Protein backbone atom coordinates (compact mmCIF):
# COMPACT_ATOMS: atom_id res chain seq x y z
CA UNK A 1 0.00 0.00 0.00
CA UNK A 2 1.51 3.27 -1.09
CA UNK A 3 -0.42 6.28 0.19
CA UNK A 4 0.32 9.58 -1.47
CA UNK A 5 2.21 12.04 0.69
CA UNK A 6 -0.12 14.43 2.53
CA UNK A 7 -3.12 12.27 1.69
CA UNK A 8 -6.22 13.21 3.65
CA UNK A 9 -8.06 10.22 5.05
CA UNK A 10 -11.84 9.92 4.69
CA UNK A 11 -13.50 6.88 6.26
CA UNK A 12 -17.06 5.60 5.73
CA UNK A 13 -18.71 3.71 8.58
CA UNK A 14 -22.16 2.29 9.12
CA UNK A 15 -24.28 -0.82 9.09
CA UNK A 16 -23.82 -3.55 6.54
CA UNK A 17 -25.88 -2.84 3.43
CA UNK A 18 -26.05 0.93 3.97
CA UNK A 19 -24.27 1.52 0.66
CA UNK A 20 -20.80 2.62 1.77
CA UNK A 21 -18.97 0.75 -1.00
CA UNK A 22 -21.45 1.98 -3.61
CA UNK A 23 -21.03 5.60 -2.44
CA UNK A 24 -17.27 5.31 -2.81
CA UNK A 25 -17.52 3.72 -6.27
CA UNK A 26 -19.94 6.44 -7.39
CA UNK A 27 -17.62 9.17 -6.10
CA UNK A 28 -14.37 7.74 -7.45
CA UNK A 29 -15.50 6.06 -10.68
CA UNK A 30 -18.95 7.51 -11.39
CA UNK A 31 -20.46 4.03 -11.51
CA UNK A 32 -23.05 2.04 -9.57
CA UNK A 33 -23.04 -1.74 -9.25
CA UNK A 34 -26.20 -2.98 -7.57
CA UNK A 35 -24.51 -6.32 -6.88
CA UNK A 36 -21.78 -5.06 -4.54
CA UNK A 37 -20.64 -7.71 -2.06
CA UNK A 38 -20.21 -6.88 1.65
CA UNK A 39 -16.80 -5.48 2.54
CA UNK A 40 -14.55 -7.73 4.61
CA UNK A 41 -12.20 -5.76 6.85
CA UNK A 42 -11.51 -2.57 4.93
CA UNK A 43 -10.24 -1.25 1.61
CA UNK A 44 -9.38 2.15 0.23
CA UNK A 45 -9.14 4.10 -3.00
CA UNK A 46 -7.37 7.38 -3.67
CA UNK A 47 -8.61 10.40 -5.52
CA UNK A 48 -7.20 13.86 -6.15
CA UNK A 49 -9.58 16.80 -6.00
CA UNK A 50 -8.60 20.13 -7.51
CA UNK A 51 -10.28 23.01 -5.68
CA UNK A 52 -9.53 26.71 -6.18
CA UNK A 53 -5.98 26.22 -7.43
CA UNK A 54 -5.20 23.60 -4.77
CA UNK A 55 -4.88 19.84 -5.10
CA UNK A 56 -6.17 17.73 -2.23
CA UNK A 57 -5.12 14.08 -2.28
CA UNK A 58 -7.62 11.96 -0.40
CA UNK A 59 -7.78 8.29 0.50
CA UNK A 60 -11.34 7.06 0.97
CA UNK A 61 -11.58 4.07 3.30
CA UNK A 62 -14.45 1.59 3.14
CA UNK A 63 -15.08 -0.38 6.34
CA UNK A 64 -17.06 -3.54 7.00
CA UNK A 65 -20.41 -2.95 8.65
CA UNK A 66 -21.06 -6.51 9.80
CA UNK A 67 -20.98 -7.10 13.56
CA UNK A 68 -18.33 -9.79 13.02
CA UNK A 69 -15.80 -7.13 11.95
CA UNK A 70 -16.93 -4.34 14.30
CA UNK A 71 -13.93 -4.82 16.61
CA UNK A 72 -11.53 -4.11 13.74
CA UNK A 73 -13.17 -0.87 12.62
CA UNK A 74 -11.39 1.55 15.03
CA UNK A 75 -7.98 0.79 13.54
CA UNK A 76 -9.26 1.83 10.11
CA UNK A 77 -10.50 5.24 11.16
CA UNK A 78 -7.47 6.15 13.22
CA UNK A 79 -5.99 9.43 11.88
CA UNK A 80 -9.04 10.09 9.71
CA UNK A 81 -9.67 13.73 8.83
CA UNK A 82 -13.30 12.97 7.92
CA UNK A 83 -15.64 10.23 9.13
CA UNK A 84 -18.95 9.73 7.32
CA UNK A 85 -21.52 7.60 9.16
CA UNK A 86 -23.77 6.13 6.46
CA UNK A 87 -27.24 4.70 6.97
CA UNK A 88 -29.88 3.34 4.59
CA UNK A 89 -33.03 5.51 4.56
CA UNK A 90 -35.09 2.36 3.86
CA UNK A 91 -33.77 0.49 6.92
CA UNK A 92 -34.81 1.54 10.44
CA UNK A 93 -32.15 -0.63 12.14
CA UNK A 94 -29.44 1.03 10.06
CA UNK A 95 -30.66 4.46 11.22
CA UNK A 96 -30.93 3.38 14.85
CA UNK A 97 -27.26 2.33 14.83
CA UNK A 98 -26.00 5.79 13.78
CA UNK A 99 -25.67 7.09 17.35
CA UNK A 100 -23.58 4.06 18.30
CA UNK A 101 -21.22 4.61 15.36
CA UNK A 102 -20.90 8.30 16.27
CA UNK A 103 -20.14 7.46 19.93
CA UNK A 104 -17.50 4.97 18.85
CA UNK A 105 -15.93 7.60 16.60
CA UNK A 106 -15.81 10.18 19.38
CA UNK A 107 -14.15 7.62 21.68
CA UNK A 108 -11.46 6.76 19.13
CA UNK A 109 -10.80 9.96 17.18
CA UNK A 110 -10.12 13.49 18.31
CA UNK A 111 -10.00 15.85 15.36
CA UNK A 112 -12.05 14.17 12.65
CA UNK A 113 -14.91 16.01 11.00
CA UNK A 114 -17.87 13.68 11.56
CA UNK A 115 -21.09 13.80 9.55
CA UNK A 116 -24.12 11.62 8.87
CA UNK A 117 -25.20 10.47 5.41
CA UNK A 118 -28.63 9.09 4.57
CA UNK A 119 -28.14 6.94 1.47
CA UNK A 120 -30.54 5.30 -1.03
CA UNK A 121 -32.83 8.34 -1.32
CA UNK A 122 -33.78 7.17 -4.82
CA UNK A 123 -35.75 4.23 -3.43
CA UNK A 124 -39.52 4.51 -3.00
CA UNK A 125 -39.73 2.47 0.21
CA UNK A 126 -38.11 5.16 2.34
CA UNK A 127 -38.77 4.76 6.07
CA UNK A 128 -36.54 7.45 7.62
CA UNK A 129 -37.68 10.97 6.75
CA UNK A 130 -35.28 13.81 6.02
CA UNK A 131 -36.70 15.60 9.06
CA UNK A 132 -35.98 12.66 11.41
CA UNK A 133 -32.43 12.33 10.11
CA UNK A 134 -31.79 16.08 10.40
CA UNK A 135 -33.14 16.03 13.96
CA UNK A 136 -30.70 13.25 14.89
CA UNK A 137 -27.83 15.12 13.24
CA UNK A 138 -28.76 18.32 15.09
CA UNK A 139 -28.95 16.44 18.41
CA UNK A 140 -25.46 15.04 17.75
CA UNK A 141 -24.23 18.45 16.52
CA UNK A 142 -23.28 17.01 13.11
CA UNK A 143 -23.85 17.88 9.47
CA UNK A 144 -26.31 15.78 7.51
CA UNK A 145 -26.19 14.83 3.83
CA UNK A 146 -28.56 12.81 1.67
CA UNK A 147 -27.27 10.76 -1.24
CA UNK A 148 -28.12 8.15 -3.81
CA UNK A 149 -25.19 5.98 -4.81
CA UNK A 150 -27.39 4.61 -7.61
CA UNK A 151 -28.11 7.95 -9.30
CA UNK A 152 -25.16 9.93 -7.95
CA UNK A 153 -27.45 12.54 -6.38
CA UNK A 154 -25.67 14.39 -3.57
CA UNK A 155 -22.51 12.25 -3.68
CA UNK A 156 -20.04 14.72 -5.24
CA UNK A 157 -21.62 17.57 -3.27
CA UNK A 158 -20.98 15.78 0.04
CA UNK A 159 -17.36 14.91 -0.73
CA UNK A 160 -16.67 18.37 -2.15
CA UNK A 161 -18.13 20.22 0.85
CA UNK A 162 -16.17 18.03 3.26
CA UNK A 163 -13.00 18.57 1.20
CA UNK A 164 -13.52 22.33 1.30
CA UNK A 165 -13.93 22.14 5.06
CA UNK A 166 -10.67 20.19 5.34
CA UNK A 167 -8.84 22.72 3.18
CA UNK A 168 -10.16 25.66 5.17
CA UNK A 169 -9.07 23.97 8.43
CA UNK A 170 -5.69 22.70 7.18
CA UNK A 171 -4.08 24.93 4.58
CA UNK A 172 -0.90 22.80 4.60
CA UNK A 173 -2.77 19.90 2.98
CA UNK A 174 -3.39 21.90 -0.18
CA UNK A 175 -0.81 21.70 -2.94
CA UNK A 176 -0.84 24.99 -4.91
CA UNK A 177 -1.79 24.83 -8.57
CA UNK A 178 -0.93 27.46 -11.16
CA UNK A 179 -4.15 27.58 -13.16
CA UNK A 180 -7.56 29.20 -12.99
CA UNK A 181 -9.92 28.36 -10.12
CA UNK A 182 -11.53 25.01 -10.89
CA UNK A 183 -12.90 21.86 -9.33
CA UNK A 184 -11.69 18.72 -11.07
CA UNK A 185 -11.85 15.12 -9.91
CA UNK A 186 -9.33 12.43 -10.86
CA UNK A 187 -8.94 8.89 -9.62
CA UNK A 188 -6.32 6.40 -8.52
CA UNK A 189 -7.67 3.07 -7.22
CA UNK A 190 -5.87 0.64 -4.93
TrEMBL record:
Pfam annotation, one family: Ras
Gene3D superfamilies, A to Z: P-loop containing nucleotide triphosphate hydrolases (3.40.50.300)
Swiss-Prot/TrEMBL GO biological process terms: endocytosis; intracellular protein transport
Highest taxon above the source species: Eukaryota
Cellular component GO terms held in the UniProt record: endomembrane system
NCBIfam families associated with the record: small_GTP
Name by which UniProt lists this protein: Small GTP-binding protein, putative
Organism of provenance: Trichomonas vaginalis (strain ATCC PRA-98 / G3)
Amino acid sequence: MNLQKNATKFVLLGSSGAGKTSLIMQFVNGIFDGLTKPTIGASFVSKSIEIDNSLLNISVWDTAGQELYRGLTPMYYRNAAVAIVVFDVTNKDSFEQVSGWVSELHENTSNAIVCICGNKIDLENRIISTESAKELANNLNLSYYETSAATGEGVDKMFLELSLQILSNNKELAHPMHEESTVQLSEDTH
